[in-house]
Amino acid sequence: MKILSEIIKKMLYYSLKFFGRVVELLLIVIIILVFLFRSHSFQTFSAAKITHYYSFELDTDFSIERVKLNGLEYLELYDFFIADQQGDTLIHAPFLKANLKDFSLENKFAVFDYIITENTRVKIQQYKGANATNIQFLLDYFSSSETSDEVFTVKIDKIGLQNAHVSYFNWNKPVLEYGLDYDHLEFKNFNGDILELRNRSGITSVDLEKVNFNERSGFKLVDLSGHFVLNPKKIKLEKFVFKTPKTALNCKGIAFNYKDLDDLNDFVNAVYIEGSIQQSKIDFKDLSYFVPSLQSIERTIDFSGNLKGSINNLFVEDLNLSVSPLSYFKGDVDFKGLTDLENCLIYLDIHNCQTSKLDLESINLEKFGLKNNLKLPVELERLGVVKLKGKLDGFYNDFTTNFILKSDHGKIVGDFNCSLDNVNLFNYKGTLKATDFNAGYVLQNNDLGMFSTDLDVNGKGLSLKEMDVSLNGGFTEFNLMGYGYDNISVKGVLRNNSFDGELVVLDDNVDLFFDGVFDLAQNPVQFDFNINVQKAHLNDLNLIEGRESSSLCFNLFASGFGSNLNDFSGMIEVNNIGYYENGEDYYFDSVLFDSQSNVYRHNIELYSKFAEFKMGGEFDLDSLVM
Length: 626
What we know:
Elements lengths: L1 H35 L3 H19 L3 E9 L3 E10 L5 E16 L4 E10 L2 E6 L9 H9 L8 E18 L13 E17 L2 E13 L4 E12 L2 E10 L4 E10 L9 H4 L1 E12 H5 L11 E10 L4 E9 L5 E9 L8 E11 L1 H5 L16 H4 L4 E10 L2 E10 L2 E11 L5 E13 H5 L4 E13 L7 E13 L2 E3 L2 E8 L2 E9 L3 E10 L6 E11 L14 E11 L7 E13 L2 E14 L4 E7 L3 E6 L3 H5 L1
Parallel strand pairs: 4-6, 5-6
Antiparallel strand pairs: 1-2, 2-3, 3-4, 3-5, 6-7, 7-8, 8-9, 9-10, 10-11, 11-12, 12-13, 13-14, 14-15, 15-16, 16-17, 17-18, 18-19, 19-20, 20-21, 21-22, 22-23, 22-24, 24-25, 25-26, 26-27, 27-28, 28-29, 29-30, 30-31, 31-32
């Protein structure tokens, strides 16, 4: 929106006021002359005398090649020219026509039906070392001679610009390499209608219709329309339309409030915005002309919402934002310090949000001013499309959040404090509840199925490899090998594909107590744990088939490492072994199994009440077991 304010400030404030003063000067003289002279040649001669006078008064070149007046109403000017005091073109209108609607010398006003120019050149400059623009001498001349009794008011119903060329260059400032340079603006092929231009008591109002131009930066505007009001405290836009080849911005009404016009130089901080944006579309290429850091982003977003605040401290209510056919956001957002995303305070009230891992990772956050792009665990890709509701409050790297996340593979409810540490690892602490979450599909493990859980969580890392998290809670449902366990409690640490802690299962078909470490991150796998199984109905648990009444209990201690029987080194001791089947109880007392293995030799020993066994050498235990 800054370009609008700059256009209004520099073009309307200077150019239109300049047009008004020049037109005022010409009209007063020409209106008088029209009563005296009917000859076009004498009209041109008289106009030349007047322009010669003002050339001397203003110390510049001021000329009109030809004038044509028809009665009191119609005027044509050919090659209307004013130079600045350095001799360069200030304004040149090859052709200008106007139609007078009403005027009064006594009441000092004139109303024009229209003023239309073709191929007009307006060249506003601030020369090197100068403190003001080259138009200032005209403004000063007419302003210094004005009193409240002398002001001649000019009203113009329509100003038509056809193929105009308007520029503003401040030669005291360097030229920017990319984007709209507000000190070096140049608008070519400038067309459009300026309607109902009024300036009364410091308030300027105007309607723009189908204004379009090409700016030197490459920015192209195809339609700027709406009602504009400019006063010393506010710019107000109503029924505002802003279109480029890829952007369409529609605004029912929006106001830019400020203390004085100088605040427009600090637009993002000093101007307070209030307004409503209807369903609109913005292309990042167009946006990059205003924010050059977005130059490399190829994306179009659809949005609507109600705005309050400055650009830097902006509140958007009922924001509807769509960044792709898949990803959208609906809710309220509040930014404090938006121009510095690293330190921006963010509040999100998410009414409804939908996205996917691939869509999130496709956003180049570095181009938005952040240090790193988003990289999510590959497991999240298998969630597919996720829907989110909740709130977030804080900075992008330190925030609190509560949310409800749903996908085709389950539902997760969370309440967390989150942050990024010095090595950009995600830290979190809070509660997590999952319902019917399909862990088997997400983790690509055929033995796993659905689970439901309620856990206290404190840790860091999102992928299995980098995760280091403390868990305390339970599972109300956990499907393993086709059986749904319930009433599971867990307390321990998940760290880099390992678990160190306690696990208790009090299910209808199994009572199990686990305490120890199981580390899948090591190769071979390392473990050191105790298991107490008070009952295990093996057939019901899908551990064996065809023995419906089978049940097992035991105490087990295991310590060692290995990925299979051949490379296993360590000890396994099983005590109080009991087995029940078909009404018979079998008691096996204890079994001790010791295995030591290396690349040269494998020694195994088995001790029990019924037998002892020792074997050493090179052999394949898997083959022997088969």
